[in-house]
Amino acid sequence: MRRLRVQLPWRLPGPHRLLRLSRRLHASAGSGAGAGAAGAGAAQGKFLLPGASAAVLLMLGVLHAKRMYDDKQLVERKEQGIEPEFSPDLKASFLRLLPLRSMSRVWGSLMEVEVPVFMRPAIYKAWARAFHSNLQEPALPLEEYPSLQAFFIRSLKEGSRPIDPDPNCLVSPVDGKVLRLGQLRGPGTMIEQVKGFSYPVSSLLGASSSLHDATEEDISGEPTEQNVPESSNAKSWWRVSVASPKLRDRTLLSPKRGIFYCVLYLHPGDYHRVHSPVDWSIFKRRHFSGNLFPTNERAVRTIRNLYVENERVVLEGQWKEGFVAIAAVGATNVGSIKLLIEPELRTNGPGSMILHSQPYDERVYEPEGTGMMVKKGQEVAGFNMGSTVVVVFEAPLSKAREDGTVSSDFGFCVKAGDRIRVGEAIGRWSRS
Description:
By secondary structure, the protein is an alpha+beta fold.
């Protein structure tokens, strides 16, 4: 019988080597135990804070590396003239299996760990370098932010975000990147999530939103040619009579309005407080409990109904030109959305259910019909991490004079891909 000898690529340690390793371990343990049980407990307690800080720094490094890779890929596609299209992938399906809400709460707890004073400047500067935050803007010295969470939701020095004073403009409520913008048209109005996929605005804002009434009015106001008598009281912006083809209805002199939207994405390094885009009255608040998927550009391209499925808080009301709403959409590691006008509101609670059939929570601000008045640029909410804000609003399309000329015309001041800051105009129109 032939015996085979197998040469392993590694050797098991012999008994003498094992004995030496064992002695070293015992010696290390003995040196630590000499301080006594109380000393060991104190050492363990002291280790927690540096350990948490190290975990935060490690996470920052991973996020920074991923962001650099994603940015490089996006730049390359744009240079080739390729617009990203909707394309679900395996990762998007895998995310649905993860306990993202629980993970977000754990991350939130880690972010709230108090950082030793001597480590604060180093950690916050590392964050600023990774995510391009401007350290000249925070209202307080870095040493005065007790945790990374406190630094993240920092306020800014007075005058850092001047508000466009033009009464005929709507300004950005956040610092961020313009992802999508446009006009909502026709029944079943849809907001484009990415090229190749859209979602209903009614699903984003809620079935009870007063936007639906404004949309119906906008539809009925489309220019049409009909055989309608001059004395007809039918609701229309442009009626032409067969008997008098040059005679226009007096309703032509009323302003025609359209419904517009703008989607703004906040990077982790951005200023994360939400301000009012106009002077308006907030009538209602709706809180939709849901998933906490990421809202970065990859997620937008791969997850269906991303903003509709994620947890969000919607503020809805009226401004001088009609309907306006702000939807603050949560994301992974963000579940907490704070409202300054309603501090008692809690999001991403441990008992929250993730069922599409679960009704949303709605609050009507008193006095009913008047609501809560806020001024353009006033702070109304804030995020605990990067996320997304969707603004939906009415604005004048045109107002015709008797001589046939147009006196106003709304237009966006930004385009998809632009960076914008709080107080800068999203769109404006002229009045004469």
